[in-house]
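From the pipeline queue, job 12 of 40. The input is one protein chain; the requested action is below.

Action: predict structure.
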Amino acid sequence: MKYRLLTKEQFESLHQEFAIFLASQSIDVKEWDEIKTQKPEVALEEMKVFSDVVWEDVLTKTRYLEHFSETSANFFKCDDDKIHRIAIKITWDINLLTQEGFEWLMQNPLDNSVEIFKGSKNYASERNVEIFDLIEKGSVISNGEIFEYFHSLI
């Protein structure tokens, strides 16, 4: 596999899409039930292929990511050939994982206790693989509003 198997919840939410995927391979519900019970390794392979297709589609559409910890935040803009990062470190006793801490940051972005760094780099490997790695490490896909907000400040 290129990425990872979708979770049970993800498969459940993509039930219709998975059915269409199976149908595109001429596998109907009855045959799928037989494959699951009689050939679980084949069923797993189908699930792996579907997972990679879904991940590839999601990652290709991803333009922004964000990752928060108690004292830092990282915002990423994912272009086709380059990734841009804005890293923020708080040197004061503020917890960015709370609503209060996040709101404080958004209202005081130029406070002396806020350190902002920015940088860009070409992808070291395939774009979608690097984005997937950031997601696996805790980043979440975002709409880019926070990245663009801080980008406009610096």
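Job complete. The beta strands are 64-68, 72-78, 82-90, 114-122, 140-141.
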